[in-house]
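User: I'm putting together a small comparison set for a docking exercise, and I want a reference complex before I start. The sequence is below, and the ligand is magnesium ion. Could you produce the 3D structure with the ligand included, as C-alpha cells?
Assistant: Of course. I'll restate your input first, then give the C-alpha cells for the complex.
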Amino acid sequence: MLSEKIQQVLNKQLNTEFHSAYTYLSLAAYFEDLDLNGFAHWMKIQYQEELQHADKIYTFINNRDGRVIIEPLAAPRAEWASPLEAFKSALANEQALSQKIYEVVDEALQERDHATHAFMQWFVNEQVEEEAIVRDIVSDIERVIESKDGLFLMDRDLAGRTPQVRQESPV
Ligand code: MG
C-alpha cells in the first residue's frame, strides 16, 4: 500500500516522463523539418523509451494498490536554434529528469518505503546512462560542426539506432 504522499510523487513522476516523451517527439519533429531523418529517428526512439518509463511507473502504482491519476501535459518546446542547441536542451532535459527522480527517492527514504526506493533505483541507473549518451552526441556535434559533411554523416549514423533491451526491474 502506498502512502498518499508517495502516490502523489509517483503520479507526478509519471506525468514528468510523459512530458519528457512529448519533448522528444517535438525534437523529432524539429529534425524532420530539417530533413535530418537520422536525428529524428534517434529522437523518436527516445520518445518511445520515455513512454515505457511512464508505463513502468503506471504498473508500479497499480501493483502497490495505489491510484494512477492522469494529469494534463504542458505543450513542449517547439523551436531550437540549431541541431547543437537541440541536443544541448535534450541534455538539460535529462539532467532535470535525474533531479526529479532523486526527489522521488528522497521521499521514499524519508517514508521508509523500501519497495518504492528499490523500484526507483532502476531509474537512477538509467539516468546515468541517458545523460552519458546525450552528452556524447553533444560532443560529437561540436566536433563535426565546422565540417560540411559532418552533420550528414552523423545523421546516417544516428539512423542506425535500435531500441535497447534493458534489464527489467523485478516489479
Ligand atoms: Mg525517463
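Residues 98 and 125 are 10 Å apart (CA to CA). The two ends are 14 Å apart (CA to CA).
User: Thanks, that's exactly what I needed.
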